[in-house]
Design brief:
Blueprint (H helix, E strand, L loop, with lengths): L4 H9 L25 E2 L5 E5 L9 E2 L6 E2 L6 E2 L14 E10 L7 E9 L19 H10 L12 H4 L8 E6 L8 H8 L1 H15 L3 E7 L3 H11 L5 E6 L8 H9 L14 E5 H13 L5 E7 L7 E6 L4 H7 L13 E2 L6 E2 L13 E3 L19 H5 L6 H9 L3 H6 L10 H5 L6 H96 L2 H13 L8 H31 L2 H10 L44 H27 L5 H8 L3 H4 L3 H31 L1
Helix pairs in contact: 4-6, 5-8, 11-14, 14-18, 15-21, 16-17, 16-21, 17-18, 17-21
Protein name: Ion-translocating oxidoreductase complex subunit C
Cofactor: [4Fe-4S] cluster
EC number: 7.-.-.-
Length: 724
């Protein structure tokens, strides 16, 4: 269980600290470079500014080859929260943007902007923020980000991300330990620029609002301790803590444990235990950015080693090739059998593959040792002495990690908490077999990171594929459903139309059938009335029909109907007259009978005469006159009895029957008289149809005469049948 804030403060007031496990005590060799002030180097002819110099993602390039740039001008733009821009370290021209050897143990080329200096060292326009306390925190954080500041103590984590935690902060720890041998850059920076470091601490306190500030410095730096105490004495919440010299006391987790006795969990961050840590070099850069508006374009680098004639600390521009620094400090390659240059200290540094490797934001030392100064790596078999486990400050098992890393058993290496290793090199330092343990760990970590990146890429690709397949399936299902609904709608429409069509067809057939039946019934009734009705009845019926129109003159519509009826009667009388004339010419009683029997079946063709209603001598089919007009004969005609007359009568009767059937069939097939046509008939002008009173009387007489003739003919036919 971690200590609470008050207990920690009480113990610090007593001058007591905690300790961390393991650790070693290598030779310091710091006096080689910490005796002289920080020197300023001349501007190199070419600068190689690596685009990515921090943990995270690289910024977006905003310059191009051939472009003139000023000192402090941004070369990249931050397009991501974990992207930090880089800036031109001096004025000049961009002569290349290409892959260049990197400041990394692998030496793999990385994207680099090459600047050819014009030696004018002309600054771009700067924007300081002196009244930062009156500005929103987001604006201050944006200024820190735009200045390209990242952690300068080792990992290079973006400072603006680290300075905006989502948890409360109990302690802000400023790391001034610098525990590794040979390195003195932070020592000289605290001695010469303690006030500016304090200003950077003030800005961080404004952002983080910590309860207390602890500034940790090893007891082998008395001048730096005194300078920082003087700079911080005005603020009681700033406490300078003197830490016993022990390697690696400057490690983040180790220093937190020494000052607060709080242990950062595996795969955790210091903020998880209420602590935020920054390096003194980072504080100096923050003060430069806020109070002077200067981006991070230079840093203090220790150039040391017995192969260097003038070891010292220098202000090195970011992007300066290490050859430029070594030349200024008079590097003597003759003191080495083969070139051996280390970026960093002897414990955690790495050999560079070229003297054109540029200085980056995390570069704190360039070490050029002689052959006698650094033991050569003569790796031998592990003797399982467990010295590495005793020296490990993270309480790991370096021997097990070594075996699994060497055998490429990466899963087992992770099971032994490989990523909790801080790569301090204490295990390799104490190894009697001179095994470069840290190098194996770094290779294993790199391989695991590559596998994880590949897995993430494959997972993303699989997710994209699955989402695409799901999207395509959903779209296909939507199309199928749309087509199904459309098909159902068409089926319903077709069924509805089919039912309507069937209903229409059935209705038409029913009408035709009813009409055919009605016509047949009318014809049958007319024949029966003609054959069976007595003469006086027919005469009375005729007289009644003649008198009937006279009673329907009450209105204009009735007068029109009466006129239509009279016209039809006149037409019937004319046809009967023609029949009588024909009978007289032939002078044959049997033929007269046949012709009279045919007359009821003859109808007027509606198609050929659209303005006339179908009618016969025996039947008149209209809306106003639905009954047959029959007039019984008053006299009995005398016809000679003969065998030929009987034969002719039978033949005529059969012919008449066939003709009547044909006429009925043709009448059904013919176009029915529509209501519109009847309306056309009814709308005929009354003036055209109404005749004079004399004409009407004459028409009535003719009709009566026709009825009488028809009755006589019938009687004659009956007599002829009886005689036969």
């Amino acid at each position: 269980m971690q200590n609470n804030f008050d207990d920690i403060i009480d113990k610090l007031d007593k001058g007591e600290l905690w300790d961390f496990p393991g650790g070693v005590f290598p030779a310091e060799r710091k006096t080689l470079s910490n005796q002289t002030p920080i020197a300023k180097l001349p501007i190199p002819e070419r600068l190689y500014v690596t685009v990515k110099q921090h943990i995270g993602v690289e910024g977006h390039l905003i310059v191009e080859v051939g472009q003139k740039v000023l000192k402090g001008q941004a070369l990249t733009k931050s397009m991501n929260p974990f992207a930090v821009p880089v800036h031109a370290s001096t004025s000049g021209e961009i002569t290349a943007i290409h892959k260049h050897v990197s400041a990394h143990p692998s030496g793999l080329p990385e994207l680099t902007v090459q600047i050819t200096s014009d030696q004018d060292d002309k600054w771009t326009q700067l924007s300081p923020m002196v009244d930062y306390q009156n500005q929103p925190k987001t604006k201050v954080l944006a200024a820190i980000c735009d200045a390209g500041i990242s952690g300068m103590g080792g990992a290079g984590f973006p400072t603006h991300i680290k300075s905006s935690p989502k948890k409360d902060v109990d302690f802000l720890i400023i790391n001034g330990i610098e525990c590794e041998p040979y390195i003195t850059s932070d020592d000289r920076l605290m001695r010469e620029h303690s006030w500016q470091i304090r200003q950077g601490i003030d800005v961080l306190c404004h952002l983080l609002k910590p309860k207390h500030v602890l500034i940790g410095i090893e007891n082998n730096k008395p001048e730096a301790i005194e300078a920082m105490q003087v700079a911080c004495r005005e603020n009681p919440n700033y406490r300078v803590c003197t830490i016993p010299t022990k390697y690696p006391a400057g490690g983040e987790k180790q220093l937190i444990q020494v000052l607060t006795n709080r242990e950062v969990p595996a795969q955790g961050l210091p903020v998880d235990v209420g602590v935020i840590m920054h390096n003194v070099g980072t504080c100096f850069a923050i003060a430069d950015a806020i109070f002077a508006g200067k981006p991070l374009i230079s840093r203090v680098v220790t150039v040391t080693g017995e192969a260097v004639e003038k070891p010292s600390n220098v202000w090195a521009l970011i992007g300066s090739p290490i050859a430029h620094l070594l030349t200024h400090c008079e590097y003597k390659q003759t003191l080495q059998k083969q070139s051996n240059i280390i970026m960093g200290g002897p414990m955690m540094g790495f050999n560079v593959s070229s003297d054109l490797v540029p200085v980056v934001k995390t570069t704190n030392c360039i070490l050029a040792p002689t052959d006698n100064e650094m033991a050569s790596n003569n790796e031998q078999a592990c003797i399982r002495c467990s010295a590495c486990a005793d020296a490990c400050p993270a309480s790991l098992l370096p021997q097990q990690l070594f075996w699994h890393a060497k055998a490429k058993e990466l899963d087992k290496a992770q099971d032994y908490n490989l990523f909790d290793c801080i790569e301090c090199g204490a295990c390799a330092y104490v190894c009697p077999s001179e095994i470069p343990l840290v190098h194996y760990y770094r290779i294993a970590k790199a391989e695991i990171r590559v596998e994880q990146e590949d897995k993430q890429k494959s997972d993303k690709a699989r997710d994209r594929f699955e989402k695409r397949e799901a999207r395509l399936i959903a779209e296909q299902q939507a199309r199928d459903e749309k087509h199904r609904l459309a098909a159902e709608a068409r089926k319903q429409a077709m069924a509805s139309n089919g039912n309507n069509s069937k209903d229409k067809i059935a209705a038409a057939l029913a009408r035709a059938k009813a009409k055919k039946q009605a016509l047949s019934e009318v014809d049958d009734k007319a024949i029966e009335a003609t054959e069976l009705a007595p003469a006086n009845t027919s005469e009375q019926t005729a007289k009644a029909e003649v008198a009937e129109p006279a009673t329907k003159v009450a209105s204009s519509n009735q007068r029109v109907q009466a006129a239509i009826a009279r016209a039809k009667a006149k037409k019937a009388a004319a046809e009967v007259t023609d029949i009588n004339t024909e009978l007289k010419d032939k002078d044959d009683a049997s033929n007269l009978k046949d012709e009279q029997l045919k007359q009821p079946q003859q109808h007027i063709d509606v198609k050929k005469q659209p303005n006339k209603v179908s009618m016969s001598t025996k039947t008149v089919v209209t809306d106003s006159i639905p009954k047959a007009v029959e007039t019984p004969p008053t006299e009995k005609p005398t016809i000679t009895d003969s065998k030929q007359a009987k034969i002719a009568a039978a033949v005529a009767k059969a012919k008449a029957k066939r003709e009547a059937q044909k006429a009925a069939n043709s009448q059904v097939a013919a176009e029915p008289v529509s209501a519109a046509k009847v309306d056309n008939i009814k709308t005929v002008s009354a003036d055209e149809l109404v005749k004079t009173e004399e004409q009407q009387i004459d028409m009535k007489k003719r009709r009566i005469a026709a009825a009488v003739a028809k009755a006589k003919a019938k009687k004659a036919a009956e007599k002829a049948d009886k005689s036969s």
